Automatic annotation (TrEMBL):
Gene Ontology terms: cellular component: membrane
InterPro entries given in the database record: FMN-bd (IPR007329), TAT_signal (IPR006311)
Molecular function, one GO term: FMN binding
Domain FMN-binding: 160-190
Record-given protein name: FMN-binding protein
Pfam families, alphabetized: FMN_bind
Length: 197
């Protein structure tokens, strides 16, 4: 179609029903594209925060949390620690908190087995015994029952016994490695407390 320079062609708009149909189709397509992204994003949320480190320290010490101290893990201390931790501790320095009454609080990570994702836990030790432990962040897809108070209660009062603890801890079906990890972490907290004295 040709137009003369003095005549302007008016654009032809589709009928309102056709335009609405196109908008509906595009809106639906965009919604479908967003759907897998939402599901994929949810799939990466494999961790659960049970308690923040700040809340753990407040539970341990009340409103007046002592300032953090640092334990330097030289080769001699690493050697002692690896006997209970199961391998060399991955850091050369570890922060901890000590109250005037001698109570210490420790926050550190461990894994259930090689290839697992670290779990962050906190332990309070006083007079050579675990006063209480908490799972702060659990990053595995199974076994989060170890964060329940009924499970953690089994660790209260635990003392060092060789490279383990002197308390029997019941297994959790499907979470054997996580249960062993928590026992190892309790023993590690006792070892760290002894090394910091």
């Amino acid at each position: 179609m040709t137009t003369s320079p003095d005549k302007l062609e008016t654009p032809v708009h589709p009928a309102p029903a056709v335009a609405a149909s196109r908008r509906s189709f595009l809106g639906g397509a965009l919604a479908l594209l967003a759907l897998p992204v939402t599901r994929v994003a949810g799939a990466f949320e494999l961790f659960k925060t049970f308690q923040t480190p700040e809340a753990f320290l407040t539970e341990a010490f009340g409103a007046t949390v002592p300032p953090a101290s640092t334990l330097d893990l030289d080769d001699a201390k690493q050697s002692q620690l690896s006997a209970v931790y199961g391998r060399r501790y991955p850091q050369a320095r570890l922060r901890y908190w000590r109250a005037p009454n001698g109570r210490t609080a420790w926050i550190f990570d461990d894994i259930g087995k090689e290839g697992y994702v670290p779990t962050t836990s906190g332990f309070v030790v006083q007079n050579g015994a675990v006063e209480f432990g908490r799972v702060l962040i659990y990053r595995e897809s199974r076994g989060e029952q170890i964060a329940e108070r009924s499970f953690l209660q089994q660790l209260v009062g635990a003392r060092a016994s060789g490279n383990g603890i002197d308390k029997k801890v019941d297994n959790v079906s499907g979470a054997t490695y996580s249960v062993k990890m928590m026992q190892r972490m309790a023993r590690t907290a006792l070892a760290l407390d002894a090394l910091a004295r």
